[in-house]
Write a sequence for this structure.
């Protein structure tokens, strides 16, 4: 009977299970890099692409497998705006609140979106269809005001177009994508 | 500037400009062939230094001088970081370059890495640019196949790896040491300098950080020569020893209330008004401009009277702005309230302050709350003095923060107060007719 208190292999097995084979394989590739800790942001991108958000279990598992302190993983995950720590809706609405969009009426679109969806920025609709976020400048100022739904860019949006755009996604009911 | 020939954007409108064959057909990578193996890295640095090229990312630091700070005879590795985290609100020229002409960017990267003897180049690409990522990845693949990248470039003993690091949305990553921290997989907290990155940067090795457009300029300096580059733009002011001149072509962005927003190339020194009228086809709806942000939100505001300001590195400074910044102008028409602009600006910087230095973290947050209170109809005239005090005390220039984010937050406040105080006072009087003159402390208003 073993008397060792080393549970490393057990912890690693659990972490692998939490993250799934795709992310685990990515992390293993990272260890070939001369600076594996530098891959933390890339790993979190992978995890979020896989699960849609970063749950506390995911963060712990990344810390274990990438061998980075858990506090550091949590710090990075909460620092960058792109990383979500709560589940998101099926469609992600990002409204650009950069200066160029703002002066061309992004605020009115923000109000209309909030009215239509019944949620404020950072929230998800009760039916899980839409998550609304305000983003900083998207670098498409020539098309201002800009609203992104998932990967689609909607340019020169007017408040009255908002219901139609939302309807489009409800109708299509596309499968979840990042 | 009738005989000005655009070089940076020469390929942008060509069909399939992002492909290697199209780039090579236009003479692409010819400069690389002429330079690598035939010019020594030291000669390249000397050429770039002689051209007096200044960084296009915002600060305008002389590029050749930055390169010359690298230690000589360092055993390596030396890193080149490409700042493609174009985050300044209103700025989008780097995106145009990376999406339409990624090989030009790549050739600039390879030449600059050769000059600085860097063995790895990291492109720090902001997350919001998926098409740029796709185009750059494809370009790197094509260039490697063709022998422009990888081991023993063009049969010489020079080797270079290019890696793309995707950001995750944080404005402060555009600060060079914040960018380095982020590539190292940490929160993008800017470092205290010195040591400067040239001495101790990425993974504690000598590092150079340059903007995408700066690196693209390097290609044309080496191709067409220093004399060509210096024939474009504005020489240094004779009575200002700190002005290094503004030579070369520059990409200018135009957005906001103009008829034709977009990205245009012109010589440095073109006036702000000419930029709007010639390229933007004037202010929309036949209105007049009330104010123009000359080069990204942090640079502050030019008033209508200052539209003859030359868009070179010194011009906006003379007009009371932070500087040329990124050269991407946002136009506000005569109907647009300055208070709304100020609120948007304060909201942005309060959100993006990394939280490391108290004056910035607290200053930007309180500036936002003051704007919110004024917009909620509870503003007082003394609030403007409070805003001015915040504007004057946060940043690298007053010496209270590590990086320039707070300076960027301060300049919109300072210029709005200096140039549009009457309008701001008027809107306070109108929205709070009972209480505008009060001076006793009032409760903060905590609404988003």
């Amino acid at each position: 009977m073993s008397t060792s208190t080393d549970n490393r292999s057990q912890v690693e097995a659990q972490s692998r299970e939490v993250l799934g084979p795709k992310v685990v394989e990515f992390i293993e590739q990272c260890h070939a890099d001369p600076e594996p800790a530098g891959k933390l942001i890339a790993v979190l991108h992978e995890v979020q692409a896989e699960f849609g958000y970063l749950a506390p279990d995911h963060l712990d598992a990344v810390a274990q497998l990438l061998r980075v302190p858990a506090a550091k993983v949590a710090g990075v995950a909460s620092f960058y705006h792109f990383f979500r720590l709560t589940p998101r809706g099926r469609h992600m609405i990002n409204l650009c609140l950069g200066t160029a969009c703002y002066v061309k009426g992004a605020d009115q679109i923000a109000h209309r979106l909030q009215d239509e969806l019944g949620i404020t920025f950072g929230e998800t609709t009760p039916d899980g269809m839409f998550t609304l976020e305000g983003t900083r400048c998207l670098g498409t100022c020539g098309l201002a005001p800009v609203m992104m739904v998932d990967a689609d860019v909607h340019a020169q949006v007017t408040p009255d177009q908002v219901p139609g755009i939302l309807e489009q996604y409800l109708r299509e009911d596309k499968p979840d994508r990042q | 500037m009738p005989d000005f020939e655009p070089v940076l954007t020469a390929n942008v409108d060509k069909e399939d400009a992002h492909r290697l064959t199209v780039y090579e057909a236009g003479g692409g990578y010819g400069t690389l062939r002429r330079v690598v193996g035939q010019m020594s890295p030291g000669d390249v640095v000397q050429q770039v230094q002689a051209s007096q090229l200044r960084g296009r990312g915002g600060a305008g630091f002389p590029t050749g001088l930055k390169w010359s700070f690298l230690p000589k005879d360092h055993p390596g590795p030396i890193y080149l970081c490409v700042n493609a985290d174009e985050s300044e609100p209103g700025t989008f020229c780097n995106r145009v370059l990376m999406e339409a002409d990624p090989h030009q960017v790549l050739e600039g990267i390879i030449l600059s890495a050769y000059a600085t003897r860097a063995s790895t180049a990291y492109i720090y690409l902001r997350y919001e640019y998926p098409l740029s990522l796709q185009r750059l990845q494809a370009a790197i693949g094509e260039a490697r196949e063709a022998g422009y990248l990888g081991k023993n470039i063009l049969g010489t003993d020079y080797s270079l790896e290019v890696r793309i690091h995707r950001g995750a949305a944080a404005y402060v990553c555009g600060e060079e040491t914040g960018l380095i921290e982020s590539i190292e997989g940490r929160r993008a907290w800017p470092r205290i300098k010195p040591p400067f990155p040239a001495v101790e940067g990425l993974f504690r090795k000598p590092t150079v950080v340059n903007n995408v457009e700066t690196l693209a300029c390097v290609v044309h300096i080496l191709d067409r020569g220093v004399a060509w580059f210096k024939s474009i733009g504005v020489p240094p002011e004779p009575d200002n020893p700190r002005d290094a001149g503004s030579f070369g072509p520059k990409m200018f962005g135009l957005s906001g209330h103009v008829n034709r927003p977009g990205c245009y190339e012109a010589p440095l020194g073109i006036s702000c008004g000419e930029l709007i009228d010639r390229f933007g086809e004037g202010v929309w709806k036949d209105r007049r401009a009330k104010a123009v942000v000359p080069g990204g939100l942090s640079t502050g505001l030019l008033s209508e009277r200052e539209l003859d300001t030359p868009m070179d590195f010194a011009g906006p400074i003379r007009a009371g702005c932070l500087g040329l910044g990124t050269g991407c102008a946002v136009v506000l028409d005569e109907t647009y309230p300055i208070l709304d602009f100020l609120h948007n600006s304060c909201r942005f910087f309060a959100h993006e302050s990394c939280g490391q230095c108290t004056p910035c973290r607290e200053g930007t947050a309180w500036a936002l709350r003051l704007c919110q209170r004024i917009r909620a109809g509870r503003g007082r005239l003394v609030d403007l003095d409070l805003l001015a005090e915040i504007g004057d005390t946060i940043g690298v220039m007053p010496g209270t923060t590590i990086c320039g984010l707070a300076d960027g937050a301060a300049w919109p406040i300072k210029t709005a107060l200096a140039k549009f105080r009457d309008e701001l006072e008027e809107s306070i009087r109108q929205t709070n007719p009972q209480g505008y003159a009060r001076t006793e402390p009032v409760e903060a208003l905590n609404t988003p």
